[in-house]
Write a structure and sequence with these properties.
By secondary structure, the chain is an alpha/beta fold. The protein has helices at 14-24, 28-60, 65-113, 117-122, 125-167, 169-176, 179-216, 218-223, 227-279, 285-326, 388-395, 418-424, 439-444, 452-462, 464-470, 488-501, 518-532, 544-548; strands at residues 349-359, 362-372, 377-381, 403-408, 411-412, 425-428, 437-438, 478-479, 506-510, 536-540, 552-555. It has 2 domains: 14-326, ABC transporter type 1, transmembrane domain (ABC transporter transmembrane region fold); 349-555, 3-Layer(aba) Sandwich (Rossmann fold). A hairpin with a 2-residue loop joins strand 1 (349-359) and strand 2. Mean pLDDT is 88; it is low at 1-11.
Length: 563
């Protein structure tokens, strides 16, 4: 997509609406019913001034009391119907909107769950969060207060104009004379509004991203005493957002004022021209009163319409972002008919002429060759940034290679299903991510299917059992977000136990570079011996003791810096 997204001044993008169709498909029944209620409530509204006209011209002026009673009853009846139809209509679309929103949120989240690590690598987290929350919310207005009721307003405006022309073409002309200039100025303001709303949505995403990053990096910010600078930077984004919001509000109030002014001017014109007509006997008194009613009713939906239009514009701006995410195709492809990996898998890894770059023209791995025999343990060393972690990530298909071959048991990695591959080749990365939940939840990653016996065995093997015994509630101890309260070594043990639980054939271990005390060192070395037992392993090793444990050491060269 190459279109300049932020500042397109087009008022309404019908393409956006076409994309909404499939979302509303499950809710077509209530939406259709709501649509059907529009002409009914419009008719009930349009008829009311006619009843007033009848009461004045035939009841009051001709002194017929029974007509007055009929008119009164009729007016009341019409009002009741109007309210009834309108509230049903409102309920139906709001309920449909809420369901569409729920479906959309779920769809967005499951779509996001399947995107590739490469995508998450280049997309700021906060931006994703605002796509998944505030943008979806704003977008749902299209269904909630938007599309269908805008149709209702348009219908009411058209019906009102038609009735006025039927009653008196000349007075209708006088009443409507202000509409064309109003229309032109309104559409100009709408374009400004659209620009303001796009900007607001972008700024909100930026603010969320900035906030999320600041919270995640609070330690660093405080260590380097960057509080003032960060606050200043936030202030900047905040200010920009406020300015954009003010621009929106400004244009919005100009819009309202214009519509109201035109409404009042129309009323004055009706009084003058209509009054003249009554004096000259070309118009009845009832007709003039009916026109005053119609003019008031005409400008109310016009004003509503502009308010709804603003909501819709903010919603379309959000919807562009939402669909941008939904149309993101960057995921790791699964084979259509995957080859099963048998438990008897040998765990033979062969890498041939492997070539990989995160960004075109900046290769990280070039013509790499490596065979790791079944049960063999490789210690991987090399300068920082030479691609050790990258190689491990390629072996679990977090990214797909550009050229060459990577085989497990003689077959390309892409022949296996992703789930199975990552179960057989298990990656333990440097950073240990812990979720909010108990220690046991964190070992199982919330998968209740996993055998508790095996869990105990894995914990014994890595030495996590001793840690669990020390915790107040054992395996049921609640771990905070980020696993606060656990030491570095303890968190490593959790990661080892997780990996061991599924009995992988190949273990990929990215040893953390952090300096550790001798006690933790011996703890981790013990865990490691249990972990590597009977497995093919590639270990990015930073510690001497780890290197003593492997069968062969492979040194990687620094990838030449790109010019
Ligand atoms: N997600 C990424 N996107 C772009 N470049 C990356 C990414 N991850 C790592 N790199 C780059 O790839 C090179 C190898 O990184 P890495 O595999 O982490 O090295 P090592 O683990 O050997 O220190 C580095 O130059 C690094 O900047
Ligand atoms: Mg690394």
């Amino acid at each position: 997509m190459s279109r300049p997204k932020e500042l397109r001044g087009k008022a309404f993008d019908w393409n956006e609406f076409r994309r909404l169709g499939p979302l509303a498909r499950g809710q077509w029944r209530p939406l259709l019913l709501a649509l059907f209620l529009i002409p009914l409530s419009t008719l009930a509204q349009i008829a009311q001034p006619l009843v007033v006209k009848m009461a004045i011209d035939q009841g009051i002026i001709e002194r017929q009391e029974d007509v007055l009673l009929q008119a009164g009853l009729l007016f009341f009846g019409l009002l009741v119907f109007e309210i009834l139809f309108r509230s049903c209509h409102l309920y139906l679309i709001q309920a449909a909107g809420a369901r569409i929103l729920r479906d959309l949120r779920s769809r967005m989240f499951s779509h996001t769950l399947r995107l590739s690590p490469g995508f998450f690598g280049r997309t700021p987290r906060g931006r994703l969060v605002s796509r998944l929350t505030s943008d979806v919310e704003a977008m749902s207005e299209i269904f909630g207060s938007g599309l269908v009721s805008i149709l209702g307003d348009l219908f009411l405006i058209a019906a009102t104009i038609l009735t006025m022309i039927t009653l008196s073409p000349s007075l209708a002309g006088i009443t409507l004379i202000l509409l064309p200039p109003l229309g032109i100025s309104v559409s100009w303001i709408r374009i400004r509004l659209q620009i303001a709303f796009r900007k607001i949505r972008t700024l909100i995403a930026r603010k969320t991203a900035f906030t999320a990053e600041a919270i995640a990096g609070m330690d660093i910010i405080q260590t380097y005493a960057q509080e003032t600078r960060m606050a200043g930077e936030f202030e900047e984004v905040n200010q920009e957002e406020r300015d954009a919001e003010l621009a929106g509000v400004r244009h919005d109030s100009i819009l309202s004022a214009l519509v109201e002014l035109s409404g009042s001017l129309s009323l004055a014109l009706i009084l003058w021209w209509g009054g003249l007509g009554v004096i000259q006997d070309t118009l009845t008194f009832g007709t003039v009163v009916a026109f005053i009613e119609y003019a008031t009713r005409l400008y109310t939906p016009l004003k509503d319409l502009s308010a709804k239009y603003s909501i819709m514009q903010s919603a379309t701006a959000a919807s562009e972002k939402v669909f941008g995410l939904l149309e993101e195709k960057d995921r790791i492809e699964e084979p259509s008919s995957p080859t099963p990996i048998y438990p008897t898998s040998k765990g033979l890894v062969e890498i041939r002429d492997l070539h990989f770059a995160y960004r075109p023209g900046e290769p990280v791995l070039r013509d790499m060759n490596l065979t790791v025999n079944s049960g063999e343990r490789i210690g991987l060393i090399g300068p920082t940034g030479c691609g050790k972690s990258t190689l491990l990530r390629l072996l679990v298909r977090f990214h797909d290679i550009d050229r060459g071959q990577v085989h497990l048991d003689g077959l390309d990695l892409r022949d296996y299903s992703l789930g199975e591959l990552r179960k057989r080749i298990r990656l333990v990365s440097q950073e240990v991510v812990l979720f909010r939940g108990t220690l046991e939840d964190n070992i199982r990653i919330f998968d209740s299917q996993k055998d508790p016996e095996r869990l105990r065995w894995a914990a014994e093997t890595t030495g996590l059992q001793a840690v669990a015994d020390r915790l107040p509630d054992g395996y049921q101890t609640q771990l905070g977000e980020g696993g606060s309260g656990l030491s570095f070594g303890e968190r490593q043990l959790i990661a080892f136990t997780r990996a061991l639980l599924d009995d992988p054939k190949v273990l990929l271990l990215d040893e953390a570079t952090s300096a550790i005390d001798p006690r933790t060192e011996s703890l981790l070395q013990q865990a490691l011996s249990g972990l590597l037992e009977g497995r093919t392993a590639i270990v990015v090793a930073h510690r001497k003791a780890t290197l003593n444990r492997v069968d062969r050491i492979v040194r990687m060269e620094a990838s030449s810096p790109s010019s």
